[in-house]
Amino acid sequence: YFEAALKMVPLTIGYHNAGVACSFLAKGDTSEAREYAKRARTHLEAYLKVSPNDWPVQKLIAEMLIRTEQVEAAIRYWEDTSKKDPNNGKVILEIGQLLVKQGKRREALARLKSATTRIHDQETISNLYEQIFSLYASWLLDGAAGMERIRLTDHAVAELLVYRKVINPAKPPNPKKDPLWGYRKLRDVNIHL
């Protein structure tokens, strides 16, 4: 119905509604789902030309691509979005999460670390560092051993020290709640799940 209405009166909200409607039908790795995903993306991108900062719609496009088994296309979509707004930490977080899902931890880590130097919003920086720490922790918990384990932990500790300076340089860390202890423990003890 929405698509038929758009042919008669091309309203911005119509593109939004048609895109959302098609996106609900875009599930799975079938040619029909991919066709709905293509139609939804066309409508939603037409809507984004008028409302380029609509985060829920941007996220919907990427989620729809992921639901239709097009993870590479979702990464390309976020990369294109990032080119338009290179300091958008939310987009960089999304790229990082998708790269991790593909097993590209090093690439994800490089992008996240790079973003911490460009972005000035405290909440976004916190989220970036949280994902960086999660990456290091998952590496350690996945069985990194020997020198690799020590190297990863030392990098994580260094990132944590930078994070402390960036977020709150005047406040000294509380030794009773020191997250460094947890990373040092991960480095020194082999953990078997």
What does this structure look like?
This protein has 193 residues and is mostly helical. The protein is 76% helix and 0% strand. It is built from ten helices and no strands. The protein has helices at residues 2-8, 12-25, 31-50, 55-67, 71-84, 89-101, 105-118, 122-141, 146-167, 179-188. The N and C termini lie far apart (52 Å).
Summarize the structure in short.
This protein is an all-alpha fold. The chain has 10 helices and no strands.
Features:
disordered C terminus; 10 helices; single chain; 193 residues
Distance between the termini: 52 Å
Percent strand equals under 5%
What is the helical fraction, as a range of percent? over 70%
The overall strand count is 0
Total helix count?
10
- Net shape: flat
Average of pLDDT? 78
Sequence-ordered SSE layout with sheet pairings:
Blueprint: H1 2-8, H2 12-25, H3 31-50, H4 55-67, H5 71-84, H6 89-101, H7 105-118, H8 122-141, H9 146-167, H10 179-188
Helix pairs in contact: 1-2, 2-3, 2-4, 3-4, 4-5, 5-6, 6-7, 6-8, 7-8, 8-9, 9-10
